[in-house]
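Example S7 (structure tokens).
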């Protein structure tokens, strides 16, 4: 057998194998309605518009809180969609400066206790306890 016949037989074998395999692969098809296609694309456009509105609202709230418009735009643009959703949902629960009074009282109490123990001498009106 010559080399040409071997190559010819190999090529025919490969073509036959590919043909047999391609006929044995099951195919599935279904009708897709226009409403389904428009619904998917329309939903994505709606989601993008809603996310942009939420980003704009968060940016406006940051500006109201005293952050410059350029800085707030930079912060909002670096947020993921999940972060935007979480912040948008919790923005009313997180007013700026909330809990600051409690933090100040806690720090004062800790410093007063350390003054009483004689570890620090921050407040002149607190005398350390005697041992």
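Recovered sequence:
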């Amino acid at each position: 057998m010559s080399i040409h016949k071997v190559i010819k037989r190999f090529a025919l074998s490969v073509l036959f194998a590919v043909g047999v395999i391609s006929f044995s692969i099951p195919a599935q098809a279904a009708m897709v309605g226009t409403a389904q296609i428009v619904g998917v694309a329309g939903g994505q456009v709606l989601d993008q518009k809603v996310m942009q509105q939420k980003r704009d609202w968060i940016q406006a709230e940051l500006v109201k809180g005293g952050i410059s418009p350029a800085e707030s735009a930079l912060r909002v643009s670096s947020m993921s969609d999940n972060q935007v959703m979480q912040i948008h949902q919790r923005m009313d629960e997180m007013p700026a400066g909330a809990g600051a009074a409690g933090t100040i009282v806690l720090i004062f109490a800790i410093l007063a206790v350390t003054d009483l123990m004689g570890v620090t001498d921050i407040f002149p009106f607190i005398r350390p306890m005697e041992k």
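Notes on this example. Residues 12 and 18 are 10 Å apart (CA to CA).
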